[in-house]
Design goal:
The chain is mostly beta strands. It is built from no helices and eleven strands. The strands form two sheets. Strands 2, 4, 5, 6, 9, 10 and 11 form a seven-stranded mixed β-sheet that branches. A four-stranded antiparallel β-sheet has the order 1-3-8-7, with no helix packed on it. The radius of gyration is 13 Å and the shape is globular.
Length: 123
C-alpha cells in the first residue's frame, strides 16, 4: 500500500501562491494506471477535488478553480506538487493528496490518502 505525505506552509497571504508537496513512498507515481490527486476540505464544507496528474504526467483540473491550479511532478523524487495562485481566504482548507484508479476523487473511502495539511489564507 502506498503512503502519501503532504507538506508545505500552513499560512499563506492573500493574492500569493499556495504551494504544497506530496511525497509518495511504497509505490511509484509513474506506475500504470493511477491518478494522483489533490483534494481539499474547507471548514464546514464537503470534499472538493482540485485536480490530478496521472501516471503519464497528464493533468486535469477542476474548472471551479478558474485556471488557478497547476499540478506538476518530480519522478526522481517520487513527488507531485500543487500550486494554487491568487489565493483568498476562501481557499483556507485542509489539503489532501491521494492515489486512485479513478480520475476524480471525492470520497475518503476510495483510494489511498495522505493525512492532510491545514492551509490558512490570511494577512
Amino acid at each position: 500500500q502506498p503512503q502519501l505525505q503532504e507538506s508545505g506552509p500552513g499560512l499563506v497571504k492573500p493574492s500569493q501562491t499556495l504551494s504544497l508537496t506530496c511525497t509518495v513512498s511504497r509505490g511509484s507515481i509513474t506506475t500504470n494506471y493511477f491518478y494522483w490527486s489533490w483534494i481539499r476540505q474547507a471548514p464546514g464544507k464537503g470534499l472538493e477535488w482540485i485536480g490530478h496528474i496521472d501516471y503519464s504526467g497528464t493533468t486535469y483540473y477542476s474548472p471551479s478553480l478558474n485556471g488557478r491550479t497547476s499540478i506538476t511532478r518530480d519522478t526522481s523524487k517520487n513527488q507531485f506538487f500543487l500550486s494554487l495562485s491568487s489565493v483568498t481566504p476562501e481557499d483556507t482548507a485542509v489539503y489532501y493528496c491521494a492515489r486512485s484508479t479513478t480520475p476524480v476523487l471525492t470520497t475518503r473511502d476510495r483510494g489511498y490518502w495522505g493525512q492532510g495539511t491545514q492551509v490558512t489564507v490570511s494577512s
